[in-house]
């Protein structure tokens, strides 16, 4: 600055306009630093995490029961029974991600493919229940007769989520070295699923008979056994692919150059597989590099 003042002081205003382009003057100006970091470009990384899942088995045998009883008056009442519970499962896991960011000032938009292998997110359930079904819809007993079905339904189900791949759209806000973001998209899960159901019944006919002996009238209650029936079915698929949706929040921090750290929460819900529904919450930390 002192040197520039001395040089300006030695010439007139008109002469200053004709001064040659001195390199020393040209190099003395530095652009102001950018307020936001540069998140533009391709990136890859790896991650580890914890996943908590709810697996609802309550209607797992329902479709099988409906099929087995499709020509029976028991189809409607029995197929609606909620036989099995909802279970909770936990797992750790690891995976990788790759994506592309586009940046306009502080706004960062991107797309990402994210893969996670889960080590032990699985559960199973089994139970049975017995109910009396009296004159079900479609049954036509004679007048004064009541048909009763002593019906027992037994079932079991098991599910394991092996891995999950999500395809996300991302939107973030660049704040220097920090990038908070949200995302949403499609999820594809690879699962092992099995279920079984057994239904059996005994049918009875209850009716009253009136007899007169002399001056006495006697009513006799009958409960005649009319027969029984049973059916069973089992299904199993080792690699079943299920589609769902995903959404979540995350935060990235640029450590140095293209190296960044990441932490995020992700929610995934899958469409029902064999009448079993699965939803998961995952918490992950990871590191990546932006090119």
Explain how this protein is built.
With 291 residues, the protein is mostly beta strands. The protein has one domain: Porin (Beta Barrel). It is built from 5 helices and 8 strands, in the order αααβααβββββββ. Strands 1-2-3-4-5-6-7-8 form an 8-stranded antiparallel barrel. Strand 5 and strand 6 form a beta hairpin. The longest helix has 8 residues. The N terminus is likely disordered. It is found in: Cell outer membrane. Keywords: Cell outer membrane, Membrane, Signal. Its main location: membrane. Belongs to the Omp25/RopB family. One of its GO terms (cellular component) is cell outer membrane.
Number of helices: 5
| Number of spatially distinct domains | 1
CATH-derived topology? Porin
Mean pLDDT: 88
The rough form would be described as rod-shaped
What is the H/E order?
Answer: HHHEHHEEEEEEE
Could you tell me the strand content as a percent range? over 45%
Top CATH class: Mainly Beta
Count of beta strands: 8
- Alpha carbon gyration radius: 36 Å
Biggest pleated-sheet summary: 8 strands, antiparallel, barrel
- Pairing-aware structural class of the strands and helices? mainly beta
**Which regions contain 5 or more consecutive residues with pLDDT less than 50?**
1-35
């Amino acid at each position: 600055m002192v040197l520039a003042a001395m040089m300006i002081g030695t010439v007139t205003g008109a002469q200053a306009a004709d001064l040659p382009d001195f390199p020393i003057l040209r190099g003395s100006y530095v652009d102001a630093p950018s307020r936001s970091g540069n998140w533009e470009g391709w990136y890859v990384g790896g991650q580890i995490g914890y996943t908590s899942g709810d697996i609802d088995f309550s209607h797992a045998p329902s479709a099988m029961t409906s099929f087995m009883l499709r020509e029976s008056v028991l189809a409607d009442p029995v197929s609606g029974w909620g036989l099995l519970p909802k279970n909770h499962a936990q797992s750790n896991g690891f995976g990788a991600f790759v994506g592309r960011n586009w940046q306009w000032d502080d706004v960062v938009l991107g797309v990402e493919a994210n893969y996670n292998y889960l080590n032990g997110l699985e559960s199973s359930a089994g139970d049975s229940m017995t109910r009396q079904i009296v004159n079900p819809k479609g049954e036509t007993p004679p007048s004064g007769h009541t048909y009763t079905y002593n019906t027992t339904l037994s079932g079991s189900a098991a599910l394991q989520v092996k891995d999950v791949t999500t395809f996300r759209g991302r939107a973030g806000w660049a704040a220097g070295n920090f990038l908070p973001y949200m995302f949403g998209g499609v999820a594809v899960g690879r699962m092992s699923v099995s279920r079984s159901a057994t239904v059996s019944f005994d049918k009875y006919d209850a009716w009253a008979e009136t007899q007169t002996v002399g001056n006495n009238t006697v009513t006799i209650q009958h409960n005649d056994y009319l027969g029984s029936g049973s059916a069973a079915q089992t299904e199993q698929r080792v690699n079943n692919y299920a589609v769902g949706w995903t959404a979540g929040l995350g935060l990235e921090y640029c450590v140095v150059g293209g190296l960044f750290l990441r932490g995020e929460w992700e929610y995934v819900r899958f469409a029902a597989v064999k009448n079993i529904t699965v939803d998961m919450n995952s918490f992950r930390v990871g590191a990546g590099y932006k090119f």
